[in-house]
Amino acid sequence: RKEVEQDPGPFNVPEGATVAFNCTYSNSASQSFFWYRQDCRKEPKLLMSVYSSGNEDGRFTAQLNRASQYISLLIRDSKLSDSATYLCVVNPVDSSYKLIFGSGTRLLVRP
Amino acid sequence: DGGITQSPKYLFRKEGQNVTLSCEQNLNHDAMYWYRQDPGQGLRLIYYSQIVNDFQKGDIAEGYSVSREKKESFPLTVTSAQKNPTAFYLCASTPYPGEDTEAFFGQGTRLTVV
């Protein structure tokens, strides 16, 4: 089983739609979780951190479910500019201290 | 402004050649990472370093080598032993791990074997 798994998509949605991505992780000791956005042929950039209590930033909401070992990202009122690949990232904060990236979920927002 | 600089942006290599990709950061971060990304794929960890003069293999280290002689610098050498080196290479850094450890990325180097 991969350490971090994501549905690769693509998710093809109309403008204004609400779309949700899930990401599962295998290491129950993982402590830090993030969503990154990557545009085509560019480097990933931090979209938001994911906190235990859940957090919201404008149209974006991130949730963490430790019991089921998954995190989610909800995008409301999708814009054309939201089209990108969304990467789930887990930091186990164990002795290795290495970030673990999911393979990404591709979102296409159409007019 | 603080950040990570990768160079060159594009690199062409002949088969059998070694090439070195540069990664420099002025964020005073302890940890640095090299990732490889193939078209339509996620990031795969090549090597990472937590402190100067120390580094560990990631998931796909074969055919690559690194050094960490200075805190600011983490160059990656793609050797002739790497059979399929054409890919997008990303360098990243993080502060010494804490609860919220955002990774900062360079703009990447696109390597093509010709």
Explain the overall architecture.
- The complex is a heterodimer of chains A (111) and B (114).
- Chain A is mainly β.
- In chain A, 0% of the residues lie in helices and 52% in strands.
- Chain A has no helices and eleven strands.
- In chain A, the strands form two sheets. In chain A, strands 2, 4, 5, 9, 10 and 11 form a six-stranded mixed sheet that branches. Chain A has a five-stranded antiparallel sheet with strand order 1-3-8-7-6, with no helix packed on it.
- In chain A, strand 6 (55-57) and strand 7 (60-65) form a beta hairpin.
- With 114 residues, chain B is mainly β.
- Chain B is built from no helices and eleven strands.
- Chain B has strands at residues 4-7, 10-13, 19-25, 31-37, 43-49, 56-57, 64-66, 76-78, 87-94, 104-105, 109-113.
Q: Averaging pLDDT over every residue of chain A, what do you get?
A: 90
Give the class of chain A from helix and strand content and strand pairing.
mainly beta
Distance between the termini of chain B: 36 Å
% residues in beta strands of chain B: over 45%
Proportion of helical residues of chain B? under 10%
C-alpha Rg of chain A, in Å? 14 Å
Q: Estimate the strand proportion of chain A.
A: over 45%
Major sheet of chain B = 7 strands, mixed
Distance between the termini of chain A: 37 Å
Number of strands of chain A: 11
Count of alpha/pi helices of chain B = 0
- What does the overall shape of chain B look like? globular
Q: Give the low-pLDDT segments of chain A.
A: none
Question: Which regions of chain B contain 5 or more consecutive residues with pLDDT less than 50?
Answer: none
Which chains have the largest interface? A-B, 25 and 26 residues
Whole-angstrom Rg of chain B: 13 Å
Secondary structure layout:
The complex is a heterodimer of chains A (111) and B (114).
Chain A: E1 4-6, E2 11-14, E3 19-25, E4 32-38, E5 45-50, E6 55-57, E7 60-65, E8 70-75, E9 84-91, E10 100-101, E11 105-110
Parallel strand pairs in A: 2-11
Antiparallel strand pairs in A: 1-3, 3-8, 4-5, 4-9, 6-7, 7-8, 9-10, 9-11
Chain B: E1 4-7, E2 10-13, E3 19-25, E4 31-37, E5 43-49, E6 56-57, E7 64-66, E8 76-78, E9 87-94, E10 104-105, E11 109-113
Parallel strand pairs in B: 2-11
Antiparallel strand pairs in B: 1-3, 3-8, 4-5, 4-9, 5-6, 7-8, 9-10, 9-11
